[in-house]
Amino acid sequence: MAFGLITAFVALAIAGGVAISYVAGSAAVLAFLASGYGNYLAIMPQRIFSQIDVFTFLSMPLFILAGEMMTRGGVTGALIDLAMLIVGRMKGGLGYVNIAASVFLAGISGSAVADAAATTKTLVPAMVDRGYRLDFAAALTAASCVIGPIIPPSIVMIFYGALMNVSVAAMFAGGIVPGLLMALFLFAYNAWCARREDHPGGAGVVLPPVRPTIARALPALLIPVVIVGGIVFGVVTPTEAAALAVAITAVLVFAYRLMERDRPANALRHLFSEGSRAVESALMLTGSIFMILFAAAIFGYLIGIMRLPEAIAATVTNLDLSATTYFLLASAIMFAAGMVMDVTMALVLMVPVLIPAAIAAGADPVHVGVVSCLNLTLGLISPPFGGILMVISAASGTTYLRLSLAILPFLAVQVVLLVLLILVPDLTLALPRLLGLVN
């Protein structure tokens, strides 16, 4: 009864617009009181700081800052132009551009919501002007943004790796193939829709100039090479790679202003102006994330006291479930949770409870981690409370209801890929094994 009231409190608070960090903290404290372990709250401050004293967490605010600077400094626009240059003249070309741009941005920002904000105002109006339905353009943008947290660097993978003590480098390597497969699945669906709805495309489409576009975009593409290559091959830690991403982005923003024949003094002034706004946005988002981390520490302590993972593992053993069967069931639960909860909140609540039993049953920790991150990220485009849907609905001008209906076919395609990744672990583990990151 008490836990039912807590669930109702969380649902009402989220529906009422209360910040997720406040909801998470309040729910954590209420869960302790409802379970009869309220006396353990006295040592919560020590427990919280010991749980978040993880070096890897330092990379999250830096990756967030890099993404903010890219959006404000023109790096995002350069990558979108490159995608237009490559696939813009295919039938349904702007749909392919939308997906390809998300692939390029995924290698830099690591945030689905950041990618959604960056691409919606640029690509959705362009698609509508060329004859695409507004709800289709907005839904395709939402679906392609899910690629962001799967192709490294990924903020949610960093969070997962620190929370579950799994190698971030191995998870980054494991996310590359699933992310590219998601892009291919979306390409295939976009091709089918282009034929069915006669989307525009062909030789008459105006493309951006070749040389300036390549000159602006290629340096930006070096960022994921530095980040992923440095982490995977052990040259830098995730935190050092994030710092490099910020530094390279700052140089690119300054260089872009010079390429526009701006004076160096003005370019430097622009860099500091946009940089200060990016720092402000990154600090606000980072503060919210770390408040959720505080709640994660509280929930994790309660889960440990109640020995829930051990109980679930014992149930799996008694029912003689295979690792794959159990992981399918756990994934269904996580997907349902992601439909009504923030990604970070769902990760905090679901992963420590459900995932240890899958690993104990024989599942690979990296495979489970990558697929779980993809699963929970799909919640961002799942009605009724999809975070990306809310951002794109507001930015594009389409109603939330229309967008929620339009996203369903795209979501079905991505769920098919999710199930395929669960059933065929080698799709996720082949690259980490090749690089010697997993056995």
UniProtKB/TrEMBL annotation:
Cellular compartments annotated: Cell inner membrane
Pfam families per the UniProt record, alphabetical: DctM
Superkingdom per UniProt: Bacteria
Stored InterPro entries: DctM, TRAP_DctM
Known partners and oligomeric status: The complex comprises the extracytoplasmic solute receptor protein and the two transmembrane proteins.
This protein's UniProt keywords: Cell inner membrane, Cell membrane, Membrane, Transmembrane, Transmembrane helix, Transport
Keyword RNA-binding applies: no
Family: Belongs to the TRAP transporter large permease family.
Job of this protein: Part of the tripartite ATP-independent periplasmic (TRAP) transport system.
Residue spans crossing the bilayer: 47-66, 96-118, 139-163, 169-192, 213-235, 241-259, 279-303, 323-341, 369-391, 403-424
Domain named TRAP C4-dicarboxylate transport system permease DctM subunit: residues: 7-426
Full protein name: TRAP transporter large permease protein
Membrane topology reported for the UniProt record: Multi-pass membrane protein
Principal cellular location given in the protein's record: membrane
